[in-house]
Amino acid sequence: MNLFTSVQLAPKDPIFGLTEAYVADQRADKVNLGVGVYYTDEGKVPLLKAVIQAEEAIVAKHSPRSYIPIEGPNPYNSAVQNLLFGADSSLIKDGRVVTAECLGGTGALRVGADFIKRLNLNAPCAISNPTWENHRGIFESAGFEVVEYTYFDGKTRGVDFDGMVKSLESFPKYTTVLLHACCHNPTGADITEAQWRQVIDICKAKDLIPFLDMAYQGFADGIEKDGIAVRLFAESGMSFFVSSSFSKSFSLYGERVGALSIVTQSKDESTRVLSQLKRVIRTNYSNPPTHGAAIAAAVLNSPELRQLWEDELAEMRDRIKAMRHGLVEKLAAAGVKQDFAFIEAQRGMFSYSGLSAEQVERLQKEDGIYALSTGRICVAALNTKNIDKVAQAIARVLA
Ligand code: PLP
């Protein structure tokens, strides 16, 4: 028997596949604007000082590595809750939030998807058009039919909010609606506070299941302001899901540090929800890893380290904003006639540049500049050494 003769070669992951091509590229001045990673001005993935200090203290203890609880350690989970809902949240006090450490934001999305699937609601999952490449795959793998809601308007380069409202209103009861809590990936276009309130009203009126994906808290306007969507949903009285990640905000990509939080209606409901959530996790990877979550908890639960982390996060945020500003200026200086001011208005790590697939291909072939074929560029990978080259190359392919 030849078991694998019918196995087809799967397509490469659009983002990690691009990185493979970038790594193989021999040009010394190549630039990778494809992957969603923050780089310093020296082009390095930063190791935050707050992380180093927390890690040194953890390593010095030489703690044994036994299994940790299925849902992860309490100091970590409560730090996640405080960050998302605010330390004085009545939801937390009333025992209405269930949190489990998960393997990055991806793991949190998958555990949440598996949990919702087991509710047997027989409804689809709706993702924004466009969205992060993996959203569709995660929910399809969990057995959902995945549909799209209108989100981005290519003409205004902002959100088509009327279209979004129409889509949301058309979904059947119990549709899981995946919403980017801030710093929309890939477009960088977020909705306003007033628009969030409307979205909440629709979710309530139509019995939709809100699932907030919070992968970039702190990258737009800071921890508190970027948490606005979560806070508004918390006020709404609805039950909802939040997947959160410290991959970007702690620069801990490889440690896989994330969490799933579920807001319930009562303490009793929380107990039952947690018991089922633990079954989902136990039959998947049993229990989460110790190291990354221990670092995040140590930082978040120490006033000094937390301040240091927030300062370092602010530095990352400000550098990205400076690169947005610089790119707009340099494109104009390179003779580009189109108005690229939208790049400065977009938030988080990414910009939907408006470049076509052909233009992106030319950037890769002619200049060794790698971006997604959708035109998404990672502004957090620009720096003072590569920004002139990038601006000039974009100007050339646009001419
Ligand atoms: N959600 C969005 C919107 C993302 O952009 C990402 C990562 O790029 C994730 C979730 C997953 O993050 P993690 O690397 O923590 O799994």
UniProtKB/TrEMBL annotation:
Alphabetical keyword list: Aminotransferase, Pyridoxal phosphate, Transferase
Domain Aminotransferase class I/classII large residues, every copy: 29-394
Superkingdom, natural source: Bacteria
Record field: transmembrane: none
GO CC terms: cytosol
GO biological process entries: L-phenylalanine biosynthetic process from chorismate via phenylpyruvate
Cofactor(s) listed in the protein's UniProt record: pyridoxal 5'-phosphate
An annotated Gene Ontology molecular function: pyridoxal phosphate binding
Signal peptide coordinates: none
EC number of this enzyme: 2.6.1.-
UniProt enzyme class: transferase
Family of the protein in this entry: Belongs to the class-I pyridoxal-phosphate-dependent aminotransferase family.
PANTHER family registered for this protein in UniProt: AROMATIC-AMINO-ACID AMINOTRANSFERASE, ASPARTATE AMINOTRANSFERASE
Quaternary structure (record): Homodimer.
Protein name (record): Aminotransferase
